[in-house]
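Researcher: Please predict.
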Amino acid sequence: MERLFENETRLKVLSVILAIILWFGVMSSQNPDHARTVYDVEVVPEGLDPGLAVLSLEPHAVDVTLSGPPEFLEDLGARDARVTVDLSGVGPGETTRPVTVIPARGRLRVVRVSPQYVTVRLEQRMEKTVPVELQLNGEPAPDYIIENPAVSVEQVTVSGARSLVERVARVVASVPVSGIQSTIAHSVTLVPVDASGRPVEAVYPQALVLEPQTVQVTVPVVFMPQKVVPVQARLEGTPAEGHEIGNITIEPAEVTVRAREERLLQQLEFLQTEPVNIGGLDRTVTREVGLALPEGVVLSGSPRTVRVTVEIRPAEPAAGAGGAGNAPGTGTGGGADSGTEGGGTASDGEAAGGR
């Protein structure tokens, strides 16, 4: 009797086991594993010596075919496979190494990886600090100007393969400003360039790393109308005895100025130069002098200095007893007395004003 009971118990246990096996078999037949390929999965170097950097890794991405239950494959992506290449103990130079693929989920298995090997070039690692250069491309709208653009950082750290880092002279933050009428603020991606301004490009992204990679750029824009005005020379002193002022030439004869208040431009008829001292001169003189700008007025696209040529010539003898000729150092604008304003003399048909 006991033996019969034991046999029945064994049969029940065996029946349960067979039922479970049959259930898995049915489920497997109804839901067989499928395969799907994930393209361009990035290869991640591991075990790299801290003193080295990867100059190139070809290919830097591989295709991985994974199999598993259909529900696992519906949203399959690059995140579901980690591809690595072990560079432990590898020195500078070129080497070919196999890749390793680890599925991110346990029900997935690797069917195929293509290619199975990658070629890696290693160099000594280098790091240095370079300046940030702001490059504004274009011009704002008419009557608008850019005032004191600013970059959030003045320097960045460049690191990576020595042959690339050595070429980098600076990094450029390029901002388009064509036609703008208001202040702009952008996050700008930096571009490393060499001494000639040519971009330094890396085949492998991690071969040349900037820290930070982006900067904040602010470009203030203000409305400032403009006006073209003539330039007049301001002379100080008196020529040598027996000499007088002749022609006065100013280059450029006109300049463009701007002001935030239009009334300032309306009131402005000409610009004077800084004083040109002709005291005691007996020959023609040429001077580079600055312009005396009224408060609130700025130059726009014009040189900050002008070239003033003052002709000093022997004085002509007086015509008749009354002395109708011009005495040295007299005349409108070209006066010999210190502080006399104007741009020329009466002696040569009003040469003042840059004519």
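Model: The CA atoms of residues 24 and 119 lie 44 Å apart.
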